[in-house]
């Protein structure tokens, strides 16, 4: 099973993602594939392949280490990374602490420590293909010129363990477990 732990996003954030992409110049929009609204989420920890028989242990570790969540979060400015990703920033007091608790939980469930540094973001689009430096710089400038989205604060009450699977050639995310909030 391919797993990750994330925060669900509210409809207001899905609309903000769409609005941000719609505000880009036509040339920039043409170079991007929007992340489907139903797959938008804020990844707290990518796990990758994990044995199906160990999922219960992972769910228990999340409940024990993360437990109830009580965070106010809001969207921030747009940005890019990796010459392929367009994102909206995610801000919130306590987000770093939540990520640390998630990391403790996955380690308690036998997952190796993450070598990636967490950066709160909502991936809203990916490039359609390779871009040369001029194309990428133009896209990056257009994204960074976007106005900040409306501060749509949300109250986060749980984290979600998701499975990422391919069904009929389409990528789907299935919520397997939510921490008790």
Question: How would you portray this structure in words?
Answer:
By secondary structure, the chain is of the alpha+beta class. The protein has a single domain (2-178), classed as Cyclic Phosphodiesterase, Chain: A (Alpha-Beta Complex). Helices cover 30% and strands 35% of the residues. The protein is built from 5 helices and 9 strands; from the N terminus they run βααββαββαβαβββ. It has helices spanning 11-22, 26-30, 55-65, 95-108, 133-144; strands at 2-8, 32-34, 41-49, 71-81, 85-91, 121-127, 154-156, 160-167, 170-178. The strands form 2 sheets. The chain has a 5-stranded antiparallel β-sheet. Strands 3-1-8-9 form a 4-stranded antiparallel β-sheet, with helices on one face. Strand 4 (71-81) and strand 5 form a beta hairpin.
What is the H/E string?
A: EHHEEHEEHEHEEE
Helix count? 5
- Main structural class: alpha+beta
- Which strand order spans the largest sheet, edge to edge or round the barrel? 2-6-5-4-7
Mean pLDDT: 93
Principal-axes shape call: globular
């Amino acid at each position: 099973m391919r797993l990750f732990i994330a925060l669900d996003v509210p409809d207001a954030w899905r609309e903000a993602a769409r609005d941000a992409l719609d505000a880009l110049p036509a040339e920039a929009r043409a170079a991007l594939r929007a992340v489907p609204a139903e797959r938008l989420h804020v990844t707290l920890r990518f796990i990758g392949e994990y044995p199906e028989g160990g999922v219960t242990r992972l769910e228990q570790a999340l409940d024990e280490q993360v437990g109830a969540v009580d965070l106010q979060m809001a969207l921030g400015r747009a940005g890019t990374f990796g010459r392929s990703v367009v994102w909206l920033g995610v801000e919130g007091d306590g987000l770093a602490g939540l990520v640390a608790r998630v990391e403790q939980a996955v380690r308690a469930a036998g997952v190796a420590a993450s070598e990636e540094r967490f950066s709160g973001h909502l991936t809203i689009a990916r490039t359609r293909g390779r871009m040369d430096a001029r194309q990428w710089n133009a896209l990056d400038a257009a994204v960074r010129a976007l106005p900040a989205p409306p501060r749509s604060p949300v109250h986060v009450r749980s984290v979600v363990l998701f499975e990422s699977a391919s069904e009929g050639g389409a990528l789907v995310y299935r919520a397997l477990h939510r921490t008790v909030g």
